[in-house]
Design brief:
about 350 residues, 11 strands, DNA Methylase, Chain A, domain 2, seven-stranded mixed β-sheet, Rossmann fold, alpha/beta, two-stranded parallel ribbon, 2 domains
């Protein structure tokens, strides 16, 4: 059976997709110690608390099952490449992409996969991504596939685009065909409509993650005037923020908005629990998303545990970071399914 190691594993979104597809994920590696509990609890795999820049190729290589296909997967932190920080060209976090490429070349896994934000392709004029591909070509030749995909086309209830990269030493590899047409997109209501209603600042009695951040009186008035699919332009003049009154701020409408219940959500970020950071207002309830709704929109199962039930550590910032940084589980499943098909094509099992 093939074995999988997940670098930059986070809370386990990418790993969980492979687990659900039946793969043997042996370990996940991440620099954030807060990922240990959700990763190990939900995936029956070992968590290694370490930065990829400190990893030795031999210590990663020895994690794989000897004599079986090796699969290395990962999603390097995407903050320096995201649309929110794209103009910040001075971050050194892009070095993690080079570190990941060097690790792949040293280990030479039979198959590798990387998932990231689309802006990586054009970051620094495309230099970073082009160097990533060039570094891998001596091992994989032309059998490296990449494409920016729309996650809603694969059943994820988000209008979210992601870069997927696949490479194989066996032969040509690619992501499977889309599973959903536009008319079949999974909506916000399909995903979270079954949850009980909660008010801003309240927590569901039966689910500690189904909690909504409180709203100030001003923001409560704002959300009450916000239409599904709308923005701050729906408000009375007196409710506008100072930045929206300026010419430079009037073009930016993707904040203080409500989602539409019959369409996918916007991209879930680490602060999707905050009404003012995007179009994260609930379609019908006067509040932003709860942590549970964030997790479901990221296609985590409803029983996925993000914190120890005995610990009083449910904070929006910490749990929101784990959820927002994750690879949507359903996209991970489609990546895993594509690799499974590829293995079978060359006579291997998953």
């Amino acid at each position: 059976m093939a074995s999988v190691v997940d670098v930059f594993c986070g809370a386990g979104g990418l790993t969980h997709g492979f687990v659900r597809q039946g793969f043997n994920v042996v370990a996940g590696i991440d620099v954030d110690a807060a990922c240990k509990y959700p990763y190990e609890t939900n995936n029956n795999a070992r968590f290694i608390h370490k930065s990829v820049s400190e990893l030795r190729p031999d210590e990663v290589d020895e994690l794989f099952v000897p004599g079986k296909p090796k699969i290395l997967i990962g999603c390097a932190p995407c903050q320096p490449f995201s649309s929110y920080t794209y103009k910040l060209q001075y971050s050194d976090k892009w070095q993690l992409i080079d570190d990941f490429a060097d690790l792949i070349v040293a280990i030479k896994p039979d198959i590798f996969s990387m998932e990231n934000v689309p802006a990586l392709v054009r970051y620094k004029g495309g230099e970073v991504f082009e160097q990533f591909i060039r570094t891998l070509q001596p091992v994989y030749g032309d059998d490296i596939w990449w494409q920016v995909v729309h996650t809603a086309d694969y059943g994820v209830p988000q209008m979210r685009k992601r870069l997927v990269v696949l490479g194989s030493r066996f032969g040509p590899i690619s992501l499977m065909e889309e599973t959903h047409s536009t008319s079949e997109y999974v909506s916000v209501h399909d995903t979270v409509g079954h949850l009980p209603a909660v008010a801003a600042g309240e927590v569901c009695d039966n689910d500690s993650l189904h909690r909504a951040q409180g709203l100030s009186p001003l923001n409560m008035r704002r959300i009450q005037q916000s239409e599904p699919g709308g923005s701050w332009r729906d408000w009375d003049e007196e409710l506008l923020a100072p930045c929206h009154r300026k010419a430079s701020g009037r073009t930016y409408s993707a904040v203080y908005g409500r989602m539409q219940h019959d369409k996918p959500s916007p991209t879930i970020t680490t602060q999707a629990y905050s009404y003012g950071t995007g179009r994260f207002g609930h379609p019908t309830q006067d509040r932003a998303l709860t942590l549970r709704e964030m997790a479901l929109l990221q296609t985590f199962p409803q029983d996925y545990e993000f914190h120890c039930p005995k610990a009083d550590d449910v904070t929006f910032t910490r749990i929101g970071k784990l959820m927002g940084n994750a690879v949507p589980v359903l996209l991970a499943e489609r990546i895993a399914e594509s690799i499974e098909r590829h293995l079978k094509e060359y006579g291997y099992s998953k």
